[in-house]
Specification:
Radius of gyration: 21 Å
Strand content: under 5%
Shape: globular
Number of helices: 9
Distance between the termini: 41 Å
């Protein structure tokens, strides 16, 4: 039985680093300055945000959660949700196009010669919308990377985009709530507001969306496991292929 000491030490180090940063770094001043800089962009801030977020997704850059939450921080819950979703969809559309025009051409000979890739391709032909939705609705799946994978399969472009949008919506709402709650907390700590009710309300909304996203993720894992069973049984059946 492996001891969880390295994991405990890693978590302790992360928590300690977060506490140190919270008390030592002038993050309130940084966030206030950044908020003022974004405010100077006016409506262009909302226009440019989806393109910036899409670029982060396309390049598979780390810190995507922070960028997504900034949509709620700077634009509010409802506008932020749709701006985050727009960035996700824009990045997904470009990733699908790149994978379909370049990746599929490279992968086609390998699919013909690989039983495994052939099964994956057939699975997407048969249950593509279900697989796309379930892998996108899980908050910890690498959705940006999966967009490239979808493009190498036979699922239609429009169908894939529709189910990416449906699967991403809960996570976009969660990130927008996270950002809006952070913005309210910064206002409260910096003295720009003394009202606690908006902070409590946004915190409650964040908690509710966290619970919703968690249970949707668990449900997605269960349904994905069930969807693999018929395929496995077909693979094991003698003379089936």
């Amino acid at each position: 039985m492996k001891r969880p000491l390295p994991k405990i030490l890693a978590i302790t180090a992360v928590v300690a680093g977060g506490v140190w940063a919270f008390h030592s770094l002038p993050w309130l001043e940084w966030m206030t300055a950044l908020e003022a800089r974004v405010a100077t962009l006016g409506p262009w801030g909302a226009v440019l945000f989806p393109f910036f977020y899409a670029l982060c997704n396309l390049l598979l850059l780390p810190g995507g959660t922070v960028v997504a939450a900034s949509g709620g921080y700077f634009f509010g819950i409802v506008p932020g949700t749709f701006l985050i979703l727009a960035g996700n969809l824009l990045g997904a559309a470009v990733a699908l196009w790149l994978a379909r025009t370049l990746g599929r051409r490279w992968l086609e000979p390998k699919i013909r010669n690989s039983p495994r890739w052939s099964r994956i391709d057939r699975a997407f032909r048969r249950e593509g919308p279900k697989i796309v939705f379930l892998t996108q609705v899980h908050p910890f799946f690498p959705s940006s990377l999966l967009n490239y994978v979808y493009g190498t399969t036979a699922i239609p472009f429009g169908t894939c985009m529709l189910w990416i949008a449906a699967g991403q919506l809960p996570s976009c709402l969660f990130f927008a709530c996270m950002g809006a709650f952070s913005q309210q907390g910064v206002d409260f700590l910096s003295g720009r507001t003394s009202e606690t009710l908006p902070l409590v309300l946004k915190g409650s909304g964040l908690l509710l969306t966290l619970v919703l996203t968690y249970y949707l993720g668990r449900m997605a894992l269960r349904l994905l496991a069930r969807s693999e069973e018929p395929e496995e049984s077909l693979e094991e059946a003698p003379g089936r292929f």
